[in-house]
Fold:
Amino acid sequence: MRGLSPWSALLLLCLVGLPGRATATYSPPLTRVRIDQDQLTHTPSVLLASERHAESLLDVNLFGVGGQYVGQLEWKSGFGLQLGAALGGASFSGQLRGATLDASGFFAGGQARAYYMLYSGGGGERPHALTAFVNLRALYYRGSAGGPNPIDLESFALSGGLGLMGELAVLPWVSICPYAWLTPGFSSSLDYGLGRDRFSVKSGVGLRSPFLFGVDVWIYPFGGASESHLSLSAIAALFDTSGLGSRVISGAIGYTF
Structure:
């Protein structure tokens, strides 16, 4: 990279913040950072997510557990493409216009990313690396609760992203992978019903949750010569420029081969 070292650029991206609205992701951006050969990799994973969605008349907490598959197609020139899909169960709690919410349902998501390795070097048997990416992500969830006054809700959000992910090889068989990305929201909607009454909250382009950050620990059980690895991920979107306290904290356990 010119002007900034690769790791200074990653730190700078972690400190950026802008006003507006966005949605978060439940999984790390990439399953490989050093892109230096033609190959296709597969990553099944288990996701856990805790999300708070706060507006003027509602405050909903979501807890989800699900599975995800990510495929990455890469070329030795440094370019790569990724497609992923996730599905899982969800529980919902909180307040909707003064009514208590206790519901269950599901979430589903999909993502597409393009990426390019900016730097690789050092680290001995396993070089360090830094890769930039852009992404498009869709996230949908739905929940309902029966009874004399039934409650239901559904949400859809489409967001983009521009970020960096690094791999720091601390040992030939262990890497630390920090990442951060800006998360512009393109559109989002939240529709919910209380008995016979229905309400809707919609928004367009914005950056209410300005960026995501996280870190992975990658363990290479077959040593530094193998690309197969176990990944332990922690991701967060903790900044809500509206001041209402929306946030996302999630984790994932996956295996890339």
